[in-house]
Amino acid sequence: MLHLTRIRVSLLEAARLRLTDAYAWHRAIWQAFPAPPGSPRDFLMRVDRRGGIFEVLVLSPRRPEIQTWGTWEIRNIPDRFFQFDRYVFSLRANPTQMRVVRGSDGSRRKNGRRTGIFQPNALRHWITEKLLAAGCRVESLSFDPPVREHFYRKGRRGTHLRVDFRGILRVEDRERFSDAVRRGIGRARGFGFGMLLLRPLPSHAPGAVS
Fold first, then answer.
1. In this predicted structure, what is the pLDDT of residue 208?
2. Strand, helix or coil for residue 106
3. For 23-75, how does the pLDDT look when each residue is reduced to its tens digit (9 = 90+)?
4. Which whole-number Å values give the CA distances from 80 to 20, 40, 207, in the listed order?
5. Domains held by the chain: number
6. Are 136 and 177 within 8 A, CB to CB?
């Protein structure tokens, strides 16, 4: 079973807590999932500003410990939620690709360089391939222009490319699909990317319960 947590935080409270970028939000949410040092992150998150508040969604296999800040609502996602055939989806992703790096003599270096994807056709190909790997086929798709997001970690500034995808998908491999929902899609999943938001299309799942 998965847990979906919705946290609402006013702009004033977020400023007081210094929740100013993706890394700051990540550190704050991490406190809700205490674990031994060195344990891997086991949650996905997404932060959206809606008028005068921030709305944070957190998907996790463990139930979070409610913190003293914000307003927290936790709901369980039953296994039957993943038994539909088609879903409306939304995905905030960090689409990247590995570029070949060559030395002065033209030889290919062992390690390439990861760069963001900007071209619409390349973005369409990227999300289509990612969802295929997640056991899904895209039936309709739209996305916003890429946006650069900055964050600070240990005093150094970093940058992620953000693209919001949306559309309709059809599940073709339910096991891979369920695993992708839990693990997330793409890179930078600790920085608010990769959470697949889903709304079932019940008419295509006879006998399923919404």
1. 38
2. coil
3. 999 999 999 999 888 888 899 999 999 999 999 999 999 999 999 999 999 99
4. 37, 27, 11
5. 2
6. yes
- The answer on 95 and 36 residing in a single domain is no
Q: For residues 107 and 61, which has the higher predicted lDDT (pLDDT)?
A: 61
AA letter at 17: L
CA dist., res. 114 & res. 127, Å (int): 17
Query: CA–CA separation, 185 vs 189, rounded Å?
Result: 8
Q: Range of 24's domain?
A: 2-77
Q: pLDDT, tens digit, for every residue of 152-209?
A: 988 899 999 999 999 999 999 999 999 999 999 999 999 999 999 999 998 644 433 3
Cα 94 to Cα 91: distance, rounded to the nearest angstrom: 10
Of the candidates 42, 75, 84, 74, the one whose C-alpha atom is nearest the C-alpha of residue 184 is 42
Pair (84, 71) in one structural domain: no
Distances (CA, A) of 6 to 21, 51, 57, 142: 18, 16, 5, 25
